[in-house]
């Protein structure tokens, strides 16, 4: 399968509005980070989206995403779901509802925010038509197995996801031992790394590196980064097999 990083940035994106720092004014395109989301394209062409960031339309056009077959939601915070309305284009094009997957708490919050979109289809396609699927254990999207990965984000339990030997964990402050067991044997990990300083609901830089070492995949890509992290300088300081993700990064993953 192929994983495309649609956005590697945190809730404000980079550049940050009104900021005069060197990273926000950098000419390096790898320092331009839209809000966090990724696309998984399976070998049969199935497109599985992780989160719909507020920048999803721009990301979808940049990557020429022709269809979305399912969406995995990690949680309901604005930077991970407020691009949901742009799924409308795919529902209109194919006259087909899109299933969305989340845990109970996330789905309840999404229904409050997007009641108009999470509904049964009618003869009209003027809004997204999304079918809610609450998950707490292994499930399938077509023939593809997806394992939810419960993690802690501040005081809230949210989900990462594992498909084959790939795992995606954003917005995390704690990974329970039971979830670490589900991560055994992965080859590629995408992992939250908000900034250098610790944060009550996210991994900081040292925590991310420590967890990457503990899980020990063949390669780890850090995501959900603020303008605190300058691509070239930080990349030069990373241990072997740990990398900074960037918008547009494409990874081939053998399962």
Automatic annotation (TrEMBL):
User: Know the name of this protein?
Assistant: PhnP protein
InterPro entries found in the cross-reference section: Cyt_c-like_dom (IPR009056), Metallo-B-lactamas (IPR001279), RibonucZ/Hydroxyglut_hydro (IPR036866)
PANTHER family recorded: HYDROLASE C777.06C-RELATED, HYDROLASE C777.06C-RELATED-RELATED
- Could you tell me which SUPFAM superfamilies the record lists for this protein? Metallo-hydrolase/oxidoreductase
What is the source species? Answer: beta proteobacterium KB13
Source superkingdom: Bacteria
Give the keywords, sorted: Heme, Iron, Metal-binding
- Which GO terms label this protein's molecular function in UniProt? electron transfer activity; heme binding; metal ion binding
> Which CDD domains does this UniProt record tie to the protein?
metallo-hydrolase-like_MBL-fold
The answer to whether UniProt assigns keyword Heme to this entry is yes
Check the UniProt entry and state the signal peptide residues, or none: none
Domain Cytochrome c span(s) in chain numbering? 8-121
């Amino acid at each position: 399968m192929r994983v495309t990083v649609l956005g590697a940035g945190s809730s404000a994106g980079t550049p940050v509005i009104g900021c005069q720092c060197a990273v926000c004014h950098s000419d390096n395109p790898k320092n331009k980070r839209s809000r966090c989301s990724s696309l998984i394209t399976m070998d049969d062409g199935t497109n599985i989206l992780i989160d719909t960031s507020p920048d999803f339309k721009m990301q979808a056009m940049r990557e020429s995403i022709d269809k979305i077959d399912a969406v995995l939601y990690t949680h309901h915070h604005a930077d991970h779901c407020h691009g949901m309305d742009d799924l409308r284009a795919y529902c209109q094009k194919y006259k087909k509802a899109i299933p969305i997957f989340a845990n109970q708490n996330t789905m309840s919050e999404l229904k409050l925010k997007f009641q108009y979109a999470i509904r049964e289809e009618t003869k009209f396609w003027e809004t997204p038509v999304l079918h809610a699927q609450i998950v707490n254990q292994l499930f399938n999207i077509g023939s593809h197995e997806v394992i939810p990965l419960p993690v802690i984000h501040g005081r809230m339990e949210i989900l990462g996801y594992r498909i084959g030997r790939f795992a995606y964990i954003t917005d995390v402050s704690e990974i329970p031992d039971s979830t670490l067991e589900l991560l055994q044997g992965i080859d590629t990990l995408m992992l939250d790394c908000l900034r250098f300083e610790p944060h009550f609901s996210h991994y900081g830089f040292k925590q991310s590196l420590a967890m990457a070492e503990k899980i020990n995949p063949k390669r780890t890509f850090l995501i959900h980064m603020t303008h605190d992290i300058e691509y070239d300088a930080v990349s030069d300081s990373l241990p072997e097999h740990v990398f900074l993700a960037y918008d547009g990064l494409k990874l081939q993953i053998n399962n």
